[in-house]
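A further point concerns the way the authors explain their paired sequence and structure data. An entry of this sort, consisting of the sequence and the corresponding backbone structure tokens, reads as follows:
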Amino acid sequence: MSSPNAKRARTDVKEPSSSKAPADSSSNGWLAALHAERCARRGIDAGVSVQEAERNRANERARAIATTVLGGGGRAETRRATDVARQRRTNSTSAKTSDEAETREHDAGDLRLLTYNVWFGDVAQAARLEALGKVIAECDPHVLCLQEVTPQSLFALRAHEWWSEYIVGPKPQLQEYFSVVLFKREIGSELVRRDQHPFANSKMGRCLDIVSYVRCPLSGTNFAVGSSHLESYISSNRTSAQERRVQIEECFSRLNKHANAIFMGDTNWDDKDGDVPVPEGWRDAWLELRPDEPGFTYDARKNDMLRGYLQKRLDRAFVKLKHFDVKNIEMVGTQPIPGVTYHKTVSNRGKSEIIELPVLPSDHFGLLLTLRGKSRRLDEDNDAVDLT
């Protein structure tokens, strides 16, 4: 999710950070106000552009941090990453504590992909990013798609042990916030492509990131992953619905040539936008495996950090698969961070009052998709490489 100016109530946070939150509880008004709250704090004017002076300062900061964080790694870094991954796996199996009783067990034949809008808000940011890093480590995804990343949050995530196991996909656009795709070194090859396709109709700098010709670690099967943060809702008369429709159609079109393709991210899709224009051969993983569950990844009723009634299935995963089956899809990051709360000033019957709320890793829940490779003949087509 994420755009424009709207009325906001003051919020105080226990940690050295603060936030502002919208008071309008109607669905569209709440969505617009939420978007306003999130972007106003970062100097964004009506979800269209960053004010010139702030944009220059932000880009300077972004370049400095991104240069450090996104710098390439050679063979030595790859070896270090392999050693770190091996040690982390050893530690996790030989030294589990009672607090780790619910650590996920991963099947060696699985392919895991995680999409997560990490929220650029400054509410308890340090604690949230630490918790977010732990969620990612627990999921241990082969491909990680993040939205609403800032240079500061990228720098914080880089401090986690798991970071060295990944290669950064297409270099992020140097904006106040952006999307990032990471993939594990073990699934890379000399054929891997990292492409970025800016949307021609986006007023928010949105784009499609694609990592293609990565290989399943067990079967060696090629696959491609596309991720995006589609255009955001701005107001009741600027819903961006048409922009999102054009953008998602482009995403499917660019990925369609691959025998095994996944598109996942924050689609910002609203039920009022109508049905997603899913092409033949593509499937919505959540609807396929959990048709009786609403799948709200932005859920003000279940995410106790939020207030209001807004429930949206903004984050989605679509698949077009020849050599894989969809094994599971689930939400992650759904639990409050122990011992972390923040204070928010809200309006109650015309009076202001301060309430204490728990903190979760993000205002969105993450979406973890697990695929399982099919058994296949050695002479079967393996997504013939087309580098055009």
